[in-house]
Amino acid sequence: MDRYAVIGNPVAHSKSPAIHAAFAAQTGQTLAYEALLAPLDGFAATVTAFRTAGGRGCNVTVPFKLEAFALAERRSPRAQAAGAVNTLKFDADGIYGDNTDGAGLVRDLTYNLDCPLAGRGILLLGAGGAARGVMLPLLAAAPARLTLANRTVARAEALVAEFAAGAGNTPLAAGSFADLAGSQFDVVINATAASLADEAPPLPPGLYAPGALAYDMMYGRGDTAFLAAARRDGAAHLADGLGMLVEQAAESFLLWRGVRPETAPVLAELRRQIE
Ligand code: ATR
Hints:
The protein is 38% helix and 23% strand. It is an alpha/beta fold. The chain has 2 domains: 130 residues, Rossmann fold; 139 residues, 3-Layer(aba) Sandwich (Rossmann fold), CATH 3.40.50.720. A 6-stranded mixed beta sheet has the order 2-1-3-5-6-4, sandwiched between helices. The protein has a 6-stranded parallel beta sheet with strand order 9-8-7-10-11-12, with helices on both faces. α1 crosses α9 and α5 crosses α9. It is globular, with a radius of gyration of 18 Å. The chain binds 2'-monophosphoadenosine-5'-diphosphate. The site of 2'-monophosphoadenosine-5'-diphosphate has 16 residues, from α6.
């Protein structure tokens, strides 16, 4: 049987085995998908052992996405832009690295949430790995403008400088949270790690244009601190990152198996389990 896995540390909490089992059942694919705990200093050895044992590919989660990037012998443009890999595929040509996080976000926004990005003003909060990982797919969606705001302004400026050449006609801007005062956006995406500490980025009031969506890449039971603040500030629509999780998994499944699963029933079941 074809074997796949998610490799991380910690990994026991991962929802990926359940998601991929549901995809396999739904598409009639015969495969096994397990969670593999790699020692913090043993990512490459764990991947090699899994591949030698017949593994066909794996997802990679915290804290190994940069090591997976380094391990890949060939990479997709979106992995190259992200500087990180969340999906490895093993074949006769060696180890291929992809990053499906940004595509998962864009698909969740545009397809599940019916929130078009083309021609709209997007604000991305954060300038770490999570923000970098979604830059290329967001720009490819042709927004009217993409603004990055981060606690450490220099990191946002560096990211904007890096992506400026590939931004096409999309105006890119970088600044602090305070710099956002007086601006409005149609889509505000929280890619900071603030929600992990149950904190929200300190945003000025009035950021949300009429009909705007506030999106947190984190998920959990109830509103994150960012979503609670967005609700108070009048955001018309709120969404957490559970849909992104399922959509990035579907993109990985597509890469491995050549079939795109239906995500709606899997997302609905996960939502039911969380709430
Ligand atoms: P990740 O891979 O999750 O993006 P990271 O690369 O460490 O992790 O980046 C964390 C991001 O969350 C950064 O943008 C960080 O801001 P700084 O660059 O100023 O450090 C942001 N962040 C973390 N905690 C935050 C908080 N409490 N409020 C606002 N931003 C926060």
